Amino acid sequence: MSATDDAESTYLIDVEEGAETSRLLEQNMLYNRAQGGLFPTELDLTPIQSVLDIGCGPGGWALEVAYTYKHLGVVGIDINSAMIRYAFAQARTRKLQNVSFEVMDASQPLDFPDASFDLINTRFVASFLTRATWPDLLKECMRLLKPGGILQLTEVELGITNSAALERLSGYIYQSLYEQKRNFSVNGRSIGIVHMLGQLLKQAGYTNICRKSFFMDSSFGAELHYSTIKDIELLYPLIKPYLVKSNVVDEAVFDEDYKTMGTDVMRHDFVALSFGLIAWGHKPLS
Ligand SMILES: C[S@@+](CC[C@H](N)C(=O)[O-])C[C@H]1O[C@@H](n2cnc3c(N)ncnc32)[C@H](O)[C@@H]1O
After folding, report:
1. Could you tell which of 125, 227, 242, 278 is best to mutate to test the pocket of ligand 1, judged by most ligand atoms within 8 Å of the CB?
2. Exposed e or buried b per residue across 165-195, where buried means at least 16 C-beta atoms within 10 angstroms of its C-beta
3. Which Pfam families does this chain map to (predicted)?
4. SS3 category, 210
5. CA distances from 194 to 150, 156, 183 (A)
6. Thinking of the domain 18-159+187-216+275-282, which architecture would CATH place it in?
7. How many CA atoms lie less than 13 Å away from 123 in the CB half-sphere?
8. Is residue 95 predicted with pLDDT exceeding 80?
Protein backbone atom coordinates (compact mmCIF):
# COMPACT_ATOMS: atom_id res chain seq x y z
CA MET A 1 0.00 0.00 0.00
CA SER A 2 2.72 2.43 0.91
CA ALA A 3 5.61 3.06 -1.45
CA THR A 4 8.56 2.09 0.71
CA ASP A 5 11.85 0.58 -0.39
CA ASP A 6 11.51 -1.87 2.48
CA ALA A 7 9.28 -4.79 3.35
CA GLU A 8 5.66 -4.44 2.22
CA SER A 9 4.09 -1.89 4.58
CA THR A 10 0.46 -1.61 5.61
CA TYR A 11 1.00 1.92 6.91
CA LEU A 12 -1.69 4.34 5.71
CA ILE A 13 0.76 7.01 4.52
CA ASP A 14 3.58 6.97 2.01
CA VAL A 15 6.51 7.69 4.30
CA GLU A 16 8.81 8.42 1.38
CA GLU A 17 7.15 11.82 1.51
CA GLY A 18 9.56 13.93 3.61
CA ALA A 19 6.49 15.71 4.91
CA GLU A 20 5.49 12.59 6.87
CA THR A 21 8.83 12.49 8.68
CA SER A 22 8.52 16.10 9.79
CA ARG A 23 4.82 15.66 10.63
CA LEU A 24 5.67 12.72 12.90
CA LEU A 25 8.40 14.70 14.68
CA GLU A 26 6.03 17.57 15.41
CA GLN A 27 3.23 15.18 16.30
CA ASN A 28 5.58 13.50 18.77
CA MET A 29 6.15 16.78 20.62
CA LEU A 30 2.43 17.54 20.58
CA TYR A 31 1.48 14.17 22.09
CA ASN A 32 4.32 14.02 24.62
CA ARG A 33 2.91 17.27 25.91
CA ALA A 34 -0.75 16.21 25.79
CA GLN A 35 0.11 12.92 27.51
CA GLY A 36 1.92 14.77 30.29
CA GLY A 37 5.29 13.15 29.59
CA LEU A 38 6.94 10.09 28.12
CA PHE A 39 5.48 7.64 30.65
CA PRO A 40 2.38 7.81 32.85
CA THR A 41 3.38 9.21 36.26
CA GLU A 42 1.85 6.12 37.90
CA LEU A 43 4.41 3.87 36.23
CA ASP A 44 7.31 2.81 38.47
CA LEU A 45 10.42 3.26 36.31
CA THR A 46 12.87 2.15 39.02
CA PRO A 47 13.39 -1.41 37.72
CA ILE A 48 13.50 -0.35 34.05
CA GLN A 49 16.82 -0.59 32.22
CA SER A 50 16.01 -1.55 28.64
CA VAL A 51 13.30 -0.07 26.43
CA LEU A 52 12.02 -1.00 22.96
CA ASP A 53 9.91 1.40 20.86
CA ILE A 54 8.00 -0.38 18.07
CA GLY A 55 7.05 1.67 14.98
CA CYS A 56 9.31 4.45 16.24
CA GLY A 57 9.06 6.59 13.08
CA PRO A 58 11.85 9.22 12.99
CA GLY A 59 12.63 8.38 16.63
CA GLY A 60 11.07 11.32 18.48
CA TRP A 61 9.87 9.34 21.52
CA ALA A 62 12.89 7.02 21.75
CA LEU A 63 15.38 9.90 21.42
CA GLU A 64 13.65 11.88 24.14
CA VAL A 65 13.58 8.85 26.47
CA ALA A 66 17.29 8.26 25.88
CA TYR A 67 18.09 11.93 26.45
CA THR A 68 15.98 12.21 29.62
CA TYR A 69 16.95 8.87 31.19
CA LYS A 70 20.64 8.44 30.50
CA HIS A 71 20.81 5.13 32.39
CA LEU A 72 18.31 3.46 30.05
CA GLY A 73 19.27 1.51 26.94
CA VAL A 74 16.73 2.35 24.24
CA VAL A 75 16.10 0.65 20.89
CA GLY A 76 13.70 1.95 18.24
CA ILE A 77 12.50 -0.16 15.32
CA ASP A 78 10.56 0.80 12.21
CA ILE A 79 9.83 -0.89 8.90
CA ASN A 80 10.96 2.14 6.96
CA SER A 81 14.67 2.67 6.43
CA ALA A 82 14.31 6.43 5.74
CA MET A 83 12.76 6.87 9.21
CA ILE A 84 15.52 4.82 10.80
CA ARG A 85 18.26 6.75 8.97
CA TYR A 86 16.78 10.00 10.24
CA ALA A 87 16.51 8.72 13.83
CA PHE A 88 20.03 7.31 13.72
CA ALA A 89 21.47 10.60 12.38
CA GLN A 90 19.77 12.52 15.20
CA ALA A 91 21.24 10.17 17.83
CA ARG A 92 24.71 10.40 16.31
CA THR A 93 24.70 14.19 15.94
CA ARG A 94 23.42 14.64 19.49
CA LYS A 95 25.95 12.07 20.75
CA LEU A 96 23.26 10.00 22.42
CA GLN A 97 25.04 6.73 23.02
CA ASN A 98 22.27 4.90 24.85
CA VAL A 99 19.91 4.67 21.87
CA SER A 100 20.01 2.65 18.67
CA PHE A 101 17.66 2.13 15.76
CA GLU A 102 17.02 -0.80 13.44
CA VAL A 103 14.85 -1.52 10.42
CA MET A 104 12.44 -4.30 11.41
CA ASP A 105 8.96 -5.37 10.40
CA ALA A 106 6.72 -5.67 13.46
CA SER A 107 4.33 -7.95 11.58
CA GLN A 108 7.09 -10.58 11.66
CA PRO A 109 8.94 -12.17 14.60
CA LEU A 110 11.38 -9.50 15.80
CA ASP A 111 15.09 -10.13 15.74
CA PHE A 112 15.69 -10.02 19.52
CA PRO A 113 16.12 -12.91 21.97
CA ASP A 114 13.38 -13.78 24.47
CA ALA A 115 13.21 -11.55 27.58
CA SER A 116 15.31 -8.73 26.10
CA PHE A 117 13.41 -5.69 27.43
CA ASP A 118 11.97 -4.26 30.64
CA LEU A 119 9.53 -2.00 28.83
CA ILE A 120 8.07 -1.95 25.32
CA ASN A 121 6.30 1.13 23.97
CA THR A 122 3.98 1.40 21.00
CA ARG A 123 2.18 4.57 19.96
CA PHE A 124 -0.18 4.90 17.00
CA VAL A 125 0.55 1.38 15.71
CA ALA A 126 -3.16 1.23 14.78
CA SER A 127 -1.91 3.03 11.67
CA PHE A 128 -0.48 -0.26 10.40
CA LEU A 129 -2.03 -3.08 12.46
CA THR A 130 -5.33 -4.80 11.73
CA ARG A 131 -7.97 -6.50 13.87
CA ALA A 132 -6.19 -9.76 13.07
CA THR A 133 -2.59 -8.64 13.72
CA TRP A 134 -3.01 -6.79 17.05
CA PRO A 135 -2.97 -10.07 19.05
CA ASP A 136 0.15 -11.27 17.19
CA LEU A 137 2.10 -8.14 18.14
CA LEU A 138 1.03 -8.34 21.78
CA LYS A 139 2.12 -11.99 21.86
CA GLU A 140 5.50 -11.11 20.35
CA CYS A 141 5.93 -8.35 22.97
CA MET A 142 5.21 -10.91 25.69
CA ARG A 143 8.08 -13.01 24.34
CA LEU A 144 10.45 -10.03 24.26
CA LEU A 145 9.63 -8.76 27.76
CA LYS A 146 11.44 -9.89 30.88
CA PRO A 147 9.16 -11.34 33.59
CA GLY A 148 7.46 -8.36 35.26
CA GLY A 149 8.20 -6.20 32.20
CA ILE A 150 5.72 -3.62 30.95
CA LEU A 151 3.96 -3.16 27.61
CA GLN A 152 2.74 0.43 27.15
CA LEU A 153 0.23 1.13 24.36
CA THR A 154 -1.00 4.59 23.32
CA GLU A 155 -3.77 5.20 20.78
CA VAL A 156 -6.21 8.03 20.06
CA GLU A 157 -9.63 8.91 18.74
CA LEU A 158 -9.88 11.78 16.27
CA GLY A 159 -11.37 15.03 17.52
CA ILE A 160 -15.06 15.77 17.82
CA THR A 161 -15.48 19.18 16.21
CA ASN A 162 -18.07 21.69 15.03
CA SER A 163 -16.68 21.66 11.48
CA ALA A 164 -18.91 19.50 9.28
CA ALA A 165 -16.12 19.30 6.68
CA LEU A 166 -13.55 18.07 9.21
CA GLU A 167 -16.09 15.54 10.52
CA ARG A 168 -16.56 14.26 6.96
CA LEU A 169 -12.78 13.95 6.50
CA SER A 170 -12.56 11.96 9.76
CA GLY A 171 -15.47 9.85 8.53
CA TYR A 172 -13.53 8.78 5.43
CA ILE A 173 -10.76 7.44 7.66
CA TYR A 174 -13.24 5.63 9.94
CA GLN A 175 -14.99 4.06 6.97
CA SER A 176 -11.85 2.78 5.27
CA LEU A 177 -10.43 1.35 8.52
CA TYR A 178 -13.75 -0.37 9.18
CA GLU A 179 -14.20 -1.75 5.67
CA GLN A 180 -10.66 -3.13 5.67
CA LYS A 181 -11.06 -4.68 9.13
CA ARG A 182 -8.20 -2.57 10.44
CA ASN A 183 -10.05 -1.55 13.60
CA PHE A 184 -12.47 -2.87 16.21
CA SER A 185 -15.32 -0.50 15.42
CA VAL A 186 -18.74 -2.15 14.98
CA ASN A 187 -20.16 0.61 12.78
CA GLY A 188 -17.27 2.49 11.12
CA ARG A 189 -17.87 5.64 13.16
CA SER A 190 -14.62 5.82 15.10
CA ILE A 191 -10.92 4.99 14.89
CA GLY A 192 -12.09 2.08 17.01
CA ILE A 193 -9.10 0.98 19.06
CA VAL A 194 -8.88 2.86 22.40
CA HIS A 195 -11.81 0.93 23.91
CA MET A 196 -10.07 -2.36 23.09
CA LEU A 197 -6.59 -1.76 24.49
CA GLY A 198 -7.36 -3.11 27.97
CA GLN A 199 -9.12 -6.18 26.64
CA LEU A 200 -6.36 -6.92 24.10
CA LEU A 201 -3.76 -6.77 26.89
CA LYS A 202 -5.88 -9.07 29.07
CA GLN A 203 -6.49 -11.57 26.28
CA ALA A 204 -2.75 -11.68 25.58
CA GLY A 205 -2.05 -12.63 29.22
CA TYR A 206 -0.82 -9.30 30.66
CA THR A 207 -1.62 -8.57 34.30
CA ASN A 208 -2.05 -5.46 36.51
CA ILE A 209 -3.55 -3.63 33.54
CA CYS A 210 -3.87 0.13 34.01
CA ARG A 211 -5.32 2.86 31.82
CA LYS A 212 -4.93 6.59 31.71
CA SER A 213 -6.75 8.96 29.41
CA PHE A 214 -5.69 12.35 28.12
CA PHE A 215 -7.44 14.90 25.97
CA MET A 216 -6.46 17.71 23.65
CA ASP A 217 -8.39 20.90 23.17
CA SER A 218 -7.66 22.18 19.66
CA SER A 219 -10.38 24.83 19.61
CA PHE A 220 -9.65 28.27 18.22
CA GLY A 221 -7.71 30.21 20.86
CA ALA A 222 -6.66 27.08 22.78
CA GLU A 223 -2.96 26.55 23.43
CA LEU A 224 -2.80 23.51 21.11
CA HIS A 225 -4.88 25.03 18.29
CA TYR A 226 -2.01 25.89 15.94
CA SER A 227 -0.02 22.69 16.41
CA THR A 228 -2.99 20.34 16.04
CA ILE A 229 -4.37 22.20 13.04
CA LYS A 230 -0.95 22.07 11.43
CA ASP A 231 -0.91 18.30 12.05
CA ILE A 232 -4.39 17.95 10.51
CA GLU A 233 -3.48 20.10 7.50
CA LEU A 234 -0.45 17.89 6.86
CA LEU A 235 -2.15 14.59 7.63
CA TYR A 236 -5.03 14.81 5.19
CA PRO A 237 -3.09 15.45 1.96
CA LEU A 238 -0.73 12.64 3.00
CA ILE A 239 -3.53 10.18 3.70
CA LYS A 240 -5.63 11.24 0.67
CA PRO A 241 -4.12 8.68 -1.77
CA TYR A 242 -5.01 5.87 0.65
CA LEU A 243 -8.58 7.14 1.10
CA VAL A 244 -9.20 7.67 -2.61
CA LYS A 245 -7.75 4.24 -3.40
CA SER A 246 -10.00 2.76 -0.71
CA ASN A 247 -13.01 4.16 -2.63
CA VAL A 248 -14.50 5.87 0.42
CA VAL A 249 -14.39 9.31 -1.22
CA ASP A 250 -13.60 10.67 -4.65
CA GLU A 251 -10.83 13.16 -5.12
CA ALA A 252 -12.98 16.20 -5.95
CA VAL A 253 -15.20 15.74 -2.89
CA PHE A 254 -12.15 15.24 -0.68
CA ASP A 255 -10.51 18.41 -2.03
CA GLU A 256 -13.67 20.45 -1.40
CA ASP A 257 -13.95 19.15 2.19
CA TYR A 258 -10.27 19.86 2.79
CA LYS A 259 -10.65 23.43 1.55
CA THR A 260 -13.75 24.07 3.68
CA MET A 261 -12.06 22.51 6.70
CA GLY A 262 -9.16 24.97 6.27
CA THR A 263 -11.61 27.87 6.60
CA ASP A 264 -13.62 26.30 9.44
CA VAL A 265 -10.64 25.73 11.72
CA MET A 266 -9.77 29.43 11.57
CA ARG A 267 -13.23 30.55 12.65
CA HIS A 268 -13.26 32.12 16.09
CA ASP A 269 -16.00 29.75 17.24
CA PHE A 270 -14.20 26.57 16.04
CA VAL A 271 -14.17 23.86 18.73
CA ALA A 272 -12.39 20.51 18.69
CA LEU A 273 -11.73 18.01 21.41
CA SER A 274 -9.88 14.72 20.97
CA PHE A 275 -8.84 12.09 23.45
CA GLY A 276 -6.41 9.24 23.76
CA LEU A 277 -5.62 6.36 26.05
CA ILE A 278 -2.41 4.96 27.45
CA ALA A 279 -2.89 1.37 28.56
CA TRP A 280 -0.19 -0.74 30.11
CA GLY A 281 0.13 -4.23 31.49
CA HIS A 282 2.81 -6.45 32.98
CA LYS A 283 4.22 -9.76 31.84
CA PRO A 284 3.49 -12.20 34.67
CA LEU A 285 6.49 -13.01 36.85
CA SER A 286 6.13 -16.71 36.22
C1 LIG B 1 2.06 6.91 13.10
S2 LIG B 1 3.73 6.47 12.93
C3 LIG B 1 4.14 6.32 14.66
C4 LIG B 1 5.31 7.14 15.09
C5 LIG B 1 5.77 6.99 16.52
N6 LIG B 1 5.39 5.76 17.14
C7 LIG B 1 5.31 8.16 17.38
O8 LIG B 1 4.63 7.93 18.37
O9 LIG B 1 5.66 9.29 17.08
C10 LIG B 1 3.73 4.79 12.47
C11 LIG B 1 5.11 4.24 12.11
O12 LIG B 1 4.99 2.83 11.97
C13 LIG B 1 5.85 2.41 10.93
N14 LIG B 1 5.43 1.09 10.46
C15 LIG B 1 4.48 0.79 9.56
N16 LIG B 1 4.36 -0.54 9.42
C17 LIG B 1 5.27 -1.10 10.26
C18 LIG B 1 5.66 -2.43 10.55
N19 LIG B 1 5.06 -3.48 9.98
N20 LIG B 1 6.67 -2.65 11.43
C21 LIG B 1 7.29 -1.60 12.03
N22 LIG B 1 6.97 -0.30 11.79
C23 LIG B 1 5.97 -0.06 10.91
C24 LIG B 1 5.76 3.51 9.90
O25 LIG B 1 6.88 3.50 9.04
C26 LIG B 1 5.68 4.77 10.78
O27 LIG B 1 6.94 5.30 11.00
Report:
1. 125
2. bbbbbbbbbbbbbbebebbbbeebebbbbbe
3. Methyltransf_25
4. strand
5. 18, 6, 10
6. 3-Layer(aba) Sandwich (3.40)
7. 24
8. yes
Q: How far is the CA of 286 from the centre of ligand 1 (A)?
A: 31
Q: Is 163 in the pocket of ligand 1 (CB under 6 A)?
A: no
Nearest residue CA, atom 17 of ligand 1?
Answer: 79
Contacts of 187 (CB under 8 A, 6+ apart): 178
Q: Which of 78, 84, 133, 132 shows the shortest CA–CA distance to 110? A: 78
Claim: this prediction has a pTM higher than 0.90: yes
Q: Quick check: CB of 78 below 6 Å from ligand 1?
A: yes
pLDDT tens-digit map of 17-39: 678 888 899 899 999 999 999 99
| CA–centroid distance, residue 19 to ligand 1 (Å) | 15
Q: Which of 10, 128, 191 to mutate to test the pocket of ligand 1 (most atoms within 8 A of CB)?
A: 128
When the pLDDT of each residue in the chain is averaged and rounded to a whole number, the result is: 94
Quick one: pLDDT at residue 4?
Answer: 42
Pairing label, strands 117-123, 50-54: parallel
Question: Strands across the sheet with 272-282, in order?
Answer: 99-103, 73-78, 50-54, 117-123, 145-161, 272-282, 207-217
Residue 124 Cα to ligand 1 middle (Å): 7
- Residue 80 alpha carbon, nearest atom of ligand 1: 25
